[in-house]
């Protein structure tokens, strides 16, 4: 499965032909080069938590998977899924109050890079959907990730993949992060809720208060040049079980 082309197509903006395949250790130099290009082009470098060559090799060596998009046989985008280490003290399953058995069934939606010249083709979300479709749901049930609070593009991407904001706290040496989560065995796209509140994305305290009361963030809207997150409290409180 990991040696063949997953799919082909044409980019929506300018119609370039592309193909998608799983990446391997032989692709590490292209991966690192693209990561550097992307990081250097960011207005807010903190939005990207770059991985080291060792971390990429670990994923490519069996601790996850990475898919890449190629145009003219050049890597223009990639996205990774990681199987987290159970002994990691920063394991997101701990933040989400999952037990050990549940944590073993968790994947991380990891780093995603798109070459600046190919932005606007919705490649980040496209790769996300492809990766989610490749998940072996016999082995894995949960997907989690972290997003910097003002990284609007990444937040939109994760919410569009059916993930929900379930925590907002400091991670990774004191950096404030949303923790988003999805249970792949839950297919209800329109949950029944007892209350709904929209909160300005910059109001960190209000968001944390709602999350503590059992609310979760499910969508993001722009109104009057400001971003608002929709939080709902389901009639039956959300549980990862």
TrEMBL record:
<protein>
    <recommendedName>
        <fullName>N-acetyltransferase domain-containing protein</fullName>
    </recommendedName>
</protein>
<dbReference type="InterPro" id="IPR016181">
    <property type="entry name" value="Acyl_CoA_acyltransferase"/>
</dbReference>
């Amino acid at each position: 499965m990991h040696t063949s082309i997953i799919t082909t197509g044409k980019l929506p903006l300018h119609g370039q032909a592309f193909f998608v395949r799983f990446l391997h250790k032989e692709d590490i130099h292209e991966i690192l080069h693209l990561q550097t290009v992307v990081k250097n082009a960011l207005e807010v470098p903190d939005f990207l938590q770059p991985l080291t060559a060792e971390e990429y090799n670990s994923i490519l060596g069996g601790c996850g998977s990475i898919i890449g998009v190629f145009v003219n046989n050049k890597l223009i985008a990639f996205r990774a899924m990681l199987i987290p280490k159970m002994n990691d003290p920063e394991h997101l399953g701990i933040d989400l109050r999952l037990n050990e058995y549940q944590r073993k069934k968790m994947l991380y939606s990891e780093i995603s890079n798109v070459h600046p010249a190919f932005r606007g083709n919705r490649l980040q979300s496209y790769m996300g959907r492809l990766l989610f479709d490749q998940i072996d749901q016999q082995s894995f049930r949960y997907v989690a990730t972290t997003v910097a609070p003002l990284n609007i593009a990444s937040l939109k991407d994760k919410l569009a993949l059916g993930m929900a904001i379930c925590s907002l706290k400091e991670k990774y040496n004191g950096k404030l992060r949303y923790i988003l989560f999805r249970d792949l065995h839950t297919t209800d796209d329109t949950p029944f809720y007892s209350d709904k509140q929209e909160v300005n994305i910059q109001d960190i305290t209000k968001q944390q208060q709602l999350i503590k009361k059992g609310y979760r963030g499910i969508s993001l809207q722009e109104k009057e040049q400001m971003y608002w997150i929709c939080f709902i409290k389901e009639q039956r409180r959300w549980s990862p079980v």
